Amino acid sequence: MKRLNAALLCSTCLSVSLSALAGDGTQVSSTENETAYFLSSSLPDKELALLMKSAEAKNIPVYFRGLINDNMDQTAKYMLNLITTYKVRGVQIDPVRFERYGVKQVPALVKKCGDHFDIVYGNLALNQALDMINQRGDCHNRP
Predict the structure, then answer these.
(1) What is the rounded distance in angstroms from the CA atom of residue 35 to the CA atom of residue 67?
(2) CA distance 109 to 128
(3) Which of 18, 26, 57, 106 could cross-link 40 (Cys pair, CB 3.0–4.6 Å)?
C-alpha cells in the first residue's frame, strides 16, 4: 500500500521530463523562450517553499536536478511533506536543463531568449532577479 501511495503522489507532485531523461535535449533546445527556476532539497524546507511559491505565482516552473538520494519513494515523501505543510504544487525533475544551462548551484533563475540565456544565482526576491535580467542581461528587452 505504501508503494502505491508514493506512486500516486509522484504523479501529482513530480513531473519527470521523459525527453530529458532520454538525453536527446529536444525539450530544452526546441524551447526558444523560457524562464525556469532551479532549486534543490538541500535548501531548508521553509526557504524552499517560499521560493517555490514565488515561482508558482509567476507561472515559472521549478526544477530539481534529480531524485533525492536517487530514490523515488524518498522524493515522493519529501514532496508530500512540502505540499501538505507549505501548500506548494511540486517540481519537475530535469537533469538536462541543469546541464544545458550549466547550473551548478541553487537557487538559480534562468531566462532563455532565442540562442541566449541569462542566469542569476542566489537567494533573492524573484522580482529582483527578473529585474536584473531584464535590465542588464543578454535577454534585455527580449520576450
Answers:
(1) 22
(2) 11
(3) 106
pTM of the model: 0.80
Peptide bond into 61 cis (omega under 30): no
CATH number 3.40.30.10 is the correct assignment for the domain at 2-17+32-136: yes
Quote the pLDDT of residue 21. Answer: 40
Report the percentage of the chain scoring pLDDT > 90: 64
Greater pLDDT, 16 or 101: 101
SS3 annotation, the chain: CHHHHHHHHHHHHEEECHHHHHCCCHHHHCCCEEEEEECCCCCCHHHHHHHHHHHHHCCCCEEECCCHHHCHHHHHHHHHHHHHHHCCCCEEECHHHHHHHCCCCCCEEEEEECCEEEEEECCCCHHHHHHHHHHHCCCCCCC
